[in-house]
Amino acid sequence: MPLEQAESLDAENDVDKEYLYTLNFGPQHPATHTTLRLILTLDGEKILRAVPDIGYLHSGFEKLGEDLDFNQYITITDRMNYLSPIANEIAWHHVVEKILNIELTKRCKYIRTILAELARMLDHLLCVGAAALDLGAFTAFLYAFYQREKIYDIMETASGQRFHPSYTRVGGLAADVTDDFVAKVRDFVKNFSKAHNDLSKLLNRNRIFIDRTKDIGVLTKEDAIDLSCSGPVARASGVVRDLRKDEPYLAYPDFEFKVACAKAGDCYARYLVRMEELLQSLNIVHQAIENLPSGPVNVDMEGKAVLPDKSATYRSIEGLIQHFELIMTNRQWKPPVDELYGAQETANGELGFYIVADGSGRAYRARTRPPSYIHFAIFPYLIEGHQISDIVAVLGSLNIIAAELDR
Amino acid sequence: MSHESTLTKLRERFGTDGFQTSEFRDNFRVIVKVEKVFETLKFLKESCGFNMLAELTAADYLYYPNARDRYGVIYGLTNTVTGERLFVKTFVNDPDPVLPSCFPIWKAADWLEREVFDMYGIVFEGHPDLRRILLPEEFTSFPLRKDYPLRGLGERHNFPAIPRAES
């Protein structure tokens, strides 16, 4: 049954009606999952107005980006969307490499594509699992988390770090992947579809889950565009836009995949889009790992952009010089004095960086376009007129990550 | 992608000297004067199909090589049908960095403009609710300005600790 729109509020008069109740939701509340706060004006259970209050996790990432060099800053970007950390650093280095005009090697592109897609799966699994958990479906959460654990294992094999890999470097990767990585990804690809099947069987036709998500938090296509939504949120409202197709980057042109879309724009549609994207990502990972090209993973040392590997640093004079050139703060990279915006399609939507380069090895301005920030701004539009218990359904379907929201 | 058709339309509307253009890699920029920025954005949305405000940000060019203006405000527009992008840039200066809000054109500008105000102190005239968003209300400086030090001005250490009984 579609819900009716809340009666419009007259700011001066109606809010002061005696029976209205103001409820503070968060910043520390188990259902928000992260640190965010809502001030709700309630008429019984019905939400008449929701005012988000954010900034509890603001830690000045963009200011730090002006102080750290192009390689160092990935330790900070990792901590923005911490559900899919490696996707942030791939996006950051994508923009840096665009400024420095570096064309990656084919092997590096493939590995980064695999990691970016695994990151998307990490994110979607937690989003779907936690959304179900908030609505009372505990089992789905456990199934999703088991698969996340496997992906963390793959991340650890590649980079040595489970959670915050800091694995990419300007012009390549910190180290090439091993055969062990390939075996683990193959194993994951083989077993994931069964887990996905279990997950969708638990939720897709679950009466309670459908009742709690269908026709809740409806976002129309016009509103989605007007409010700058991107990623699964926009695609669930019928905006057919996916940067992997629209502005192909990395190795995406080489693979066949579909863009998952829905028309309803409610929480259930966003759930379905994420579930389908999991399968499409799996498909991309499968194609990439079976066609993984051989060859060097970093670009040529001639370009003077990439850190030489340790054996070159210790055993050759050229390697040592280049290592020094890139590490010493008064040398480093020499980007043109100009600025640009670059974006990638990450799990949450369009993650963009606007870098102003002043010719030195660090960004003069490192702006992040965080999808969570833009998606949380639409939250009042989605929730007004619904009930308190719908907050967790809508929050879960938007996948708000406070660290990325506040930066 | 061709920006020629957009440029032709802009030239017809604003004349050849109404704006400047520049290009770097795949980013195409239109630089307009601050008086014309609202008109330009509105025209781009209504007549050129740039229906999404994908990005709105600012930069402080205080120590930037060869910069003439202090703050640059950048609008990243996207055409969701063709996937085309266009960047509109304008400059404002101290002591009175003011520009018109584009909230009437895109609702998404709400929080994006609040963030720019919060970080740079650039005022968007006509914004319905221009308050600080990420920083606390009582904060007085604008931390992403270049004359604000990385380690802050001691705000963090001087925050009063409120015990539970008084909260």
Features:
heterodimer; A: 407 residues; alpha+beta; three-stranded antiparallel β-sheet; 17 helices; B: 167 residues; alpha/beta; Beta Polymerase, domain 2; five-stranded mixed β-sheet; two-stranded parallel sheet; 7 strands; 23% helix; elongated
Count of DSSP H/I helices of chain A: 17
Distance between the termini of chain B: 57 Å
Annotated CATH topology of chain B: Beta Polymerase, domain 2
Tell me, what's the shape of chain A? globular
Q: Give the SSE string of chain A.
A: EEEHHHHHEEHHHHHHHHEEEHHHH
Low-confidence stretches of chain A: none
Name the overall outline of chain B.
elongated
Provide structural commentary:
The complex is a heterodimer of chains A (407) and B (167). Chain A is of the alpha+beta class and 407 residues long. Chain A has helices at 61-65, 74-77, 85-100, 106-134, 138-159, 179-203, 207-213, 221-226, 231-235, 243-246, 267-290, 310-315, 317-327, 371-377, 379-383, 390-398, 402-406, and strands spanning 21-25, 37-43, 46-53, 168-169, 172-173, 339-346, 349-357, 363-369. In chain A, the strands form three sheets. In chain A, strands 1-2-3 form a three-stranded antiparallel sheet. A three-stranded antiparallel sheet of chain A has the order 6-7-8. The longest helix of chain A is centred in the N-terminal third of the chain and has 29 residues, at 106-134. Chain B has 167 residues and is an alpha/beta fold. Chain B has helices at 4-14, 37-48, 109-120, 155-158, and strands spanning 19-24, 27-32, 52-60, 71-78, 85-92, 98-100, 123-125. The longest helix of chain B is centred in the N-terminal third of the chain and has 12 residues, at 37-48. Chain B starts with a helix and ends in a 9-residue tail after the last helix. Chain A binds chain B through residues 54-55, 58, 60, 62-64, 66-67, 98-99, 101, 223, 225-228, 230, 239, 241, 246-247, 336-341, 343, 350, 352, 354, 356, 358-359, 364-365, 367, 369, 373-374, 376-377, 406-407, and chain B through 24-27, 51-55, 57, 59-60, 63-66, 74, 76, 80, 83, 85, 87, 106-108, 110-112, 115, 119, 132-136, 143-144, 150.
